[in-house]
Design a protein that fits this description.
It is found in: Cell envelope. It comes from Lentithecium fluviatile CBS 122367. This is glucan endo-1,3-beta-D-glucosidase. Residues 332-461 form the Ubiquitin 3 binding protein But2 C-terminal domain. This protein has 470 residues and is an alpha/beta fold. The protein folds into two domains: 3-11 and 342-469, Sandwich (Jelly Rolls), CATH 2.60.120; 22-290, Glycosidases (TIM Barrel), CATH 3.20.20.80. Helices cover 23% and strands 26% of the residues. The protein has ten helices and 21 strands. The strands form four sheets. The chain has an eight-stranded parallel β-sheet with strand order 8-7-6-5-4-3-2-9. Strands 10-1-12-18-15-16 form a six-stranded mixed β-sheet, with no helix packed on it. Strand 7 (206-210), helix 9 (226-240) and strand 8 form a beta-alpha-beta unit. The longest helix has 22 residues, at 100-121. The protein starts with a strand and ends with a strand. Bound molecules: 2-acetamido-2-deoxy-beta-D-glucopyranose. 2-acetamido-2-deoxy-beta-D-glucopyranose binds next to helix 5.
C-alpha cells in the first residue's frame, strides 16, 4: 500500500493564495554594535534554511535598512548574501532620526543605497523582493507607552511618515524592475488602531504588524492567553486595514528573561507560542517574519527571543522543536501520514490528498485542473522538484479528509482522470462537472508512469491542483 499524504493546505476552491513568505528579522549589526558583513548574513540565511523541522521554508529575511551599518549609504551586504542563498527580502527603509531634517536625509540615503543595489544587481536582486517597508515602529516610539517603557530612540510623526511613504512609492514607480513590489510600513498593532495615525494607513499597500502578547501587561498575558491576545490584536488591525493585506513582521515569545505581568519567559512557553501562533499563521498562509533566529551573538539580551542560543549559529541546536503540530513526520509505517500541509509529494510510495471547499453558489460548472508553470530561471529556487518525469492519476475521495488523515483512515476513492505525462508550462483539465456548491470535496493524486516529484501548491505562478469555475 502506498503512503498517503496529509490533506494539503485546504486550498479554498476558486480563490487560492500565493505561498506565504516565512522568515526571520535580521538586524544590521551584532549585539556588540559590530556591523554584520556579507559572510555573517550569508551564514544566518543558510542557518535559517537548515533549521530542523521547518522543511527549508524559513527562506525570507526582513531587513531594517538598505544601508551597511557604519556607512553613510553603502548597500547593505545582506543583499549579496540573499542573492547567493536565494533568500527573499522584506526590505526596510529607516525613517527615524532626532530631527525631521535628519530623518529626510536618512531616507534619501536609504533610497540612494536602494538605487545602487538595483544598478549593481538588477533583477537578481529585485526578483527576491517580498515587499518594501517604510519605517519600523516609528509611530510606537512617539507614544507615551514607549516613553514609559524607557524608549530612547526617536520615532516619526504620522505626517512625516506618510510623506516618506509617498517618496518610496514614487521611487518604486520610476524603477521598472520594482513593478508590482508593494510598499508598506511596520509598526506595533497599537499604532494602527490609534485613529491619529490614519493618514499613514491610507497610504499603505500592506500593513506590517508587530505584536507581542509577552509585553501586554495591561492584559492577563500568561502564555495560555498568548494566542487569544495575538489574534485580538490581529483582528483589531484587520478592522481598520481597509482590506489591505496584513503581514506579521514581528512576533515571538522569549526563551529567557524576566517575567512581564503574567508572561513567563521560558523555552517551554516559546514552544507553546510557536505552536499556537506561528504554526497557525503558516497554516493560514499569512506572511510571517518571526522574531527571531538568534539575538545573543556577542551580547546577552534579557529577555532573549532567539530560537537558537548563542554560539556558532549552524552548530547550535534550536532551543525547542520547530515542527508544527499538524505537520506529520516522515515515517516508514504505511499506516502513517506523510506530508506537512503545504508540500505535495508524488512518487511510487507517496500520494497526496487535496481538499477544496467549494463556494456556495449553485448552478455553475467547475473544472478540476492541474497546472505546471514554465521552467524557472535556474538561478532561483523553483517551488517544485522533479526527480523523474511521469504522469498522474487523480481520484475523487468518497469523503473529504482533515489534516489528521492517515492512509488507513482515508477511505475509498474512484479514479476520475489522469495525465500520462506531465510537461512544464501546461494546464491539464482532469474533470469537469456541476460545482458542488457549499461542499468540501477531496481528491487524491497518485504518481503514474514513474513520476517522482514534490511541489508547493501556489497561485503565482499557478502550480498544483485547482478547482476553477468554467
Ligand atoms: C496616537 O498617535 C499619535 C500620533 O502618532 C501619538 O502622538 C499619540 O501618542 C498616540 N496615542 C497613544 C495613546 O498611543
Amino acid at each position: 500500500m502506498r503512503f498517503t499524504c496529509a490533506a494539503l493546505a485546504f486550498a479554498a476552491a476558486l480563490s487560492t493564495a500565493d505561498a506565504a513568505y516565512k522568515g526571520f528579522n535580521y538586524g544590521a549589526f551584532f549585539g556588540n554594535n559590530a556591523a554584520k558583513q556579507y559572510v555573517d548574513f550569508k551564514y544566518e540565511f543558510e542557518a535559517a534554511k537548515e533549521l530542523p523541522g521547518t522543511n527549508g521554508q524559513f527562506n525570507s529575511a526582513r531587513l531594517y535598512t538598505m544601508i551597511q551599518w557604519g556607512t553613510t549609504k553603502d548597500v547593505i551586504t545582506a543583499i549579496q548574501a540573499a542573492i547567493d542563498t536565494k533568500t527573499t527580502l522584506l526590505l526596510g527603509i529607516w525613517t527615524s532620526a532626532t530631527t525631521t531634517a535628519a530623518a529626510q536625509t536618512g531616507v534619501n540615503n536609504e533610497l540612494a543605497a536602494f538605487q545602487a543595489a538595483i544598478d549593481k544587481f538588477g533583477s537578481s536582486f529585485t526578483n527576491l523582493i517580498a515587499g518594501i517597508s517604510v519605517g519600523s515602529e516609528d509611530l510606537y516610539r512617539i507614544t507615551p507607552t514607549a516613553l514609559k517603557n524607557g524608549e530612547k530612540n526617536p520615532g516619526a510623526q504620522p505626517a512625516d511618515l506618510a510623506k516618506y511613504v509617498d517618496q518610496v512609492k514614487a521611487f518604486r514607480n520610476k524603477n521598472t524592475l520594482l513593478k508590482g513590489k508593494l510598499v508598506g510600513h511596520v509598526d506595533t498593532w497599537t499604532a494602527y488602531v490609534n485613529g491619529s495615525n490614519k493618514a499613514v494607513i491610507d497610504k499603505l499597500e500592506w500593513i506590517g504588524v508587530d505584536a507581542y502578547p509577552f509585553w501586554e501587561t495591561e492584559h492577563a498575558n500568561a502564555i495560555g492567553n498568548g494566542k487569544t491576545l495575538f489574534y485580538d490584536a490581529y483582528n483589531q488591525v484587520k478592522a481598520i486595514a481597509q482590506s489591505k493585506p496584513i503581514w506579521i513582521t514581528e512576533t515571538g515569545w522569549p526563551v529567557s528573561g524576566p517575567t512581564t505581568g503574567q508572561a513567563v519567559a521560558s523555552t517551554a512557553n516559546a514552544k507553546t507560542y510557536w505552536n499556537s501562533v506561528a504554526c497557525q499563521l503558516m497554516k493560514d498562509n499569512v506572511n510571517l517574519w518571526y522574531y527571531t533566529l538568534q539575538d545573543v551573538q556577542y551580547s546577552n539580551p534579557s529577555p532573549s527571543f532567539g530560537v537558537k542560543p548563542g554560539g556558532d549559529l549552524k552548530a547550535v541546536k534550536p532551543l525547542f522543536d520547530l515542527t508544527c503540530p499538524n505537520s506529520a513526520k516522515f515515517v516508514s509505517a504505511p499506516s502513517l501520514v506523510i506530508g506537512n500541509q503545504y508540500t505535495a509529494q508524488l512518487s511510487s510510495t507517496r500520494s497526496t490528498l487535496f481538499v477544496f471547499h467549494v463556494d456556495p453558489e449553485p448552478g455553475q460548472t467547475c473544472n478540476l485542473v492541474f497546472t505546471l508553470p514554465p521552467p524557472f530561471d535556474p538561478r532561483y529556487v523553483a517551488p517544485y522538484t522533479i526527480v523523474s518525469s511521469g504522469g498522474i492519476d487523480v481520484s475523487r475521495l468518497e469523503r473529504p479528509v482533515d489534516g489528521r488523515a492517515s492512509a488507513k483512515s482515508v477511505g475509498g476513492a474512484k479514479t476520475i482522470g489522469s495525465v500520462p505525462q506531465l510537461l512544464l508550462g501546461n494546464k491539464y483539465t482532469i474533470a469537469s462537472g456541476p460545482c458542488e456548491a457549499g461542499q468540501d470535496v477531496g481528491y487524491r493524486i497518485d504518481s503514474a508512469g514513474g513520476l517522482d516529484m514534490q511541489f508547493f501548491q501556489m497561485t503565482s505562478p499557478a502550480l498544483g491542483l485547482f478547482m476553477e469555475v468554467a
